[in-house]
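seq/struct pair 1
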Amino acid sequence: MLHRRTVGDVMTQEVVTFRPDTPFQEVAALLDANDIAAAPVLDDNGAPLGMVSASDVLRHETGRPDPQGQDGNDERVWAKARAQAAGALMSSPVFTARADWTIPRAARELRRRHVKQLPVVGDDGLLTGIISRSDLLDAFLRSDLEIRDEVEQDVLGRILGLDEGTVVVEVRDGDVTLRGHVPEPRLIPVVVGLCQGVDGVVAVDAHLAAAG
């Protein structure tokens, strides 16, 4: 089988975190200094309790739930606007990811939850990293050389056992072109399907024929 990269492969392991009693000014300073949009708030054991975002900081600084004041009389958002520490400023409950999730699953969860980051937790519920939209994009923005090597070495060589040079692989901007021959006609759609499953592949154009 192909090695499909997981959240654990691409997540950030050195994570800026806060405690519930971290003062507001420290929260704002750390988000700015590290150029990050959000960071998790952890309990005494290291389990995520919530997330504090730059938007939360902005609401606090404007003194309103949002700059246009469209949150009305919602006491929860007004309390966040008056928060003096991370525990009152954070959004909770927090949605989390697991290191063994596939990249597509993490992407779907980010979209479904309408968030830009997900803390990653282990079996014990403790923080092990954080995954962001940019991390997921990086996973798909692979170089053409990386894609070609995986197709040649893993798909054609290790999985299908084809002799080197049997199929010539060209990759340009993620588009894979295959030229050559395979032992049996039934292998042609198999080769194409496996190549389409390689991370970073945009499309596969197969010019393959059965040998003999």
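seq/struct pair 2
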Amino acid sequence: MRKVKPLIIGGILAASLAAAPMLASCGGDINNDEYRDDLVVVDDGSADDGGAAAATAEKDASDQAKEAASEEAAPEEAAPEETPAQDSAEAADTPPEQRPIAENLAATVSGIISSYGANASVTYTSLSDLDDYATFAVDGSEPHVSASMIKLAIMAEVFDQVNSGYLALEDSYTVQESDIVGGTGTLQGSGPGTQLSLSDLVRHMIAESDNVATNMLIDLVGMDAVNEEAVKLGLNATSLQRYMMDTDAQAAGIENHMSSDDAAVILILIANGEFYTPELSQLATDFLSQQTDAGGIAPSLSSGETFAHKTGTLTNVRHDAGIVQGEAPYVLSVFVEGTDEGSALSLMGEVTTAIETARANGEVA
């Protein structure tokens, strides 16, 4: 059964709220106790649930019959004071109107995923109003082979070290022969001896998904440090285990992992100016806005919206996650595995269109 989890957020979305700590602020103490009551899980019910409901109804009917018999046997006792009709009317008006809508949209997205037969996850969070039930995830906490989405976590550790004073954005680094690998990016064509600032390395890693820059940054900050920062941020499904283009590690089944929720956590921090500092948040936004891969979510966005995002691609793996910038901004993260690239891109388009339509109709913020 596909898990459909609308999430009601009072602050920042954290991955897997049922099990992960919530990040109150980047670099601060982690405590999500105040957010745990905000998680809403949609369940289609089960035989056990139905049996319990029936038993409860039968017990209620039995209790009512006993009360009626008691009243007939003791007419001299005063009738219980009636609850004012106003109270019940007020109670009927209290359920938030947006909740069923968020659930319906999540169900629509889940149906789209099922129609493709893919292993896919979607996380959506409105940035214009986080208190109206306009956030949901479909299998959002499920780990996926990350492809280049892991580069978001590497950027997080680099910026954490910049914020802590261990690194500086203007620091200069030289590309070595051993750094040259294939795959995406332009630095492999620049050759050894090329000098770049730390800021340039991060930009190449995010905007071009450059593998040379990525491996240089992993060497600089360390794999363990990246994974420790992921834990600190509450990224439960994120794990950096190999370098880019390490075919020997891939052949041995060693892969990097991330979830759509985890990507959303980082993007929400960036969008809210809480990615370590407002300045680093803006720099990250600039790099994401320079993304050279325009496939996936972007083609299905409405006119006037721009997309600051990161993509990831491997054989039968296609991910896209970013910040949709417009009058009512939001974060959308779609991870797809187990299908060809064309089908994955089509799935992303249908999911995006469903969300954009619901927003245009005022059904969700």
